[in-house]
Design a protein that fits this description.
Mean pLDDT: 93
Order of helices and strands: HEHEEEHHHHHHHH
Strand content: 15-25%
Shape: globular
Number of domains: 2
Strand order of the largest sheet: 1-2-3-4
Helix content: 40-55%
Distance between the termini: 36 Å
Radius of gyration: 20 Å
Number of strands: 4
């Protein structure tokens, strides 16, 4: 049974052990000059257990249904219990009918500062802000749940984005960076855009690209490629209405390399116009578009 079926069947049931993630955590502290402190290894282990052993939803995920994700924490400064870092978050999901896993979320958070004492308990309380470490990690977990759901069923991630919004609201009084209402990309901006109807094209493209495109490639590669082109057209429409959006960058940070690969082999499709569109809506990835061979 694939995850889409699980979501439909179990969306309103309550599981006692609903671990949703197969997460790996890496903590790099080379920039601190003291990378071998035990506290960094303890943080790595504690976060791994926190993410993988916490019940984040009411859906009972089987082991093989858990979402693969990774959190790379690059610590630049450490003083007592205060950490200054960046956070790279990635998540993937399997492609139906294949052994291939596709990246669905890839983001670099440069505003990740937190306090942590070795061996302190890590617990998530959805109704309060207790720790920036817990709030940031939990925010991205609910965002991943939303993105993953959107790739399987149209707009099915809304509830998870709403839970992430609650984390944002609780954190805004903390004066921690990354939560404020501002134009520059941050966690508030990401969540606000995901829940805004102005950027529905991003979520529609997620579904079209993955469920109607990649997931059908085992049956008909050419038709799947044409559907992926349709997802780019959806993004083009969003770009025409809201140019230079943060979510456009989020999408192509995950998919640019894969798109170039998809259209560079197998049965050919008319891709010339799509390449023009890609260069217009995502010029930062022009080197990827140059790699497309057709």
């Amino acid at each position: 049974m694939n995850r889409l079926v699980l979501i439909i069947v179990l969306a309103f049931t309550f599981g006692s052990t609903a671990q949703e993630f197969n997460a790996t955590i890496a903590v790099n502290a080379e920039q601190t000059g003291i990378p071998n402190l035990q506290v960094f290894r303890t943080l790595e282990q504690s976060l791994t257990e926190f993410i993988n052993n916490t019940q984040w939803t009411t859906i009972d995920y089987r082991t093989e249904e858990r979402i693969d994700c990774s959190f790379f924490i690059n610590i630049s400064d450490y003083n007592n219990d205060a950490f200054t870092a960046t956070l790279q978050v990635q998540a993937s999901r399997p492609v139906y009918g294949s052994s291939y896993s596709t990246t669905i979320f890839n983001i670099n958070d440069k505003q990740f500062n937190f306090n942590y004492l070795e061996f302190q308990a890590l617990d998530f309380n959805p109704n309060s802000f207790d720790s920036n470490l817990i709030s940031v990690i939990s925010f991205y977990l609910y965002t991943i749940l939303g993105v993953d759901a959107d790739t399987f069923e149209k707009n099915s991630g809304t509830g998870y984005y709403e839970q992430a919004k609650n984390i944002v609201s609780n954190a805004q009084g903390s004066n921690r960076t990354g939560w404020a209402r501002e134009k520059d990309p941050n966690r508030y901006r990401l969540n606000d855009d995901l829940l805004s109807g102005a950027y529905d094209g991003y979520r529609e493209a997620l579904y079209t690209y993955h469920r109607e495109g990649l997931d059908t490639m085992h049956n008909n590669v050419k038709e799947a490629k044409e559907t992926i082109i349709e997802s780019v057209e959806v993004l083009e429409e969003m770009h025409n209405n809201r140019p230079n959006s943060y979510l456009m960058r989020v999408f192509f940070d995950s998919k640019a390399t894969e798109i170039a690969s998809v259209f560079s082999g197998g049965p050919s499709v008319n891709i010339a116009k799509t390449i023009q569109v890609l260069n217009r809506i995502a010029p930062t990835y022009s080197e990827n578009w140059k790699d497309i061979k057709f």
